[in-house]
Design brief:
363 residues, alpha/beta, 6-stranded parallel beta sheet, 12 helices, 12 strands, 34% helix, elongated
Length: 363
Amino acid sequence: MRITFLSPFASLAGGIRVAAVYATKLQERGHDVHFVSLAGKTPPLRARIRAAVGMGRIRSRKPASPLLAPLGEKHLVVPNGGPITEKDVPDADVVIATYWETAPWVADLPPSKGRKFYLLQDYETFKRGRAEQVSATYDLPLEKIAVSQYIAHMLEQNHGIANIPVIPNSVDTSQFFAGQRSKSDSMTIGFLYTGKPRKNVQMAIDIASQARSVIPDLRVNVFGSIAPIDRLPLPEWISYSQAPPQDRISEIYGSCDAWLFTSEHEGFGLPILEAMACGTPVLATRAGAAPQIVDGTNGSLLETNTDAFVHELLRMNAMPADDWAKMSEAALATARSYSWDVATDRLLECLSVPTHSQGSASR
């Protein structure tokens, strides 16, 4: 099968990583796969001048995803700011939008580019100033596939689109692996750092600060793709790794006794499974796929407030090592129950069989 993925960029962001995994998995199975993305945008001249005279700074580009390297020359980079158009996309049997911005681009392609799909990795009407624009993409005549039941529910509830196939994301347990685990002598926690407000990182910082006031030797290991920003500073006692290599990410997850997932809104939440694959229990809000993954044996689902998380951290800190080990083993077992190979099987089924059942439900 000839399959093309469209992406506005090719970074280490979660949604791009998911699309990259599918692209490489499909290529390994002998399919003819292309991944089309835009080149990073050059900052406007005014921004570059302001940065040069010390009146501002240029936001660093997100590092490219190494997961796309196996595609070689079939990763096609369009050297402009978009949109991706017919001339940029090879003829294929299937073409897949991987992000809201790419959905109209796919919708505008001629039939020669293939059956048109929309891989829904979030319900993104929170986009500032673009809510209506983003919402309109969900009503485009594209066959939808969702990565979580939450997304499928929102599409049915708000757009009347029923029977959307759900293929949960997975985790590569050969990549995310930490070996035999035991509870740390000094409790260690971690979280993912980002400037996106919906990720609620300030709450994670507040949890760590409040817990450290009760557990003085608490250690906190954090990573992210950007340098800490002024409105979201990290205390000096937090260990921060910026854009670490993939093997270092596993080390960070595996160094923690608990991983904090404090998002207010998520399409899925890949760090949940990544941390669990490294034997780390997860304390999570009810965002994204957390309600389907975190079950009380492998971590805890908590209300979105600092006190609830701190209370659970204090309970885990006092927990006997054997009890923590059982949580760690349950977390690892959960991660191992998700498979990218099985997910790829299900994706191929969706791409091969017309999903005529999708459409507007009666309201």
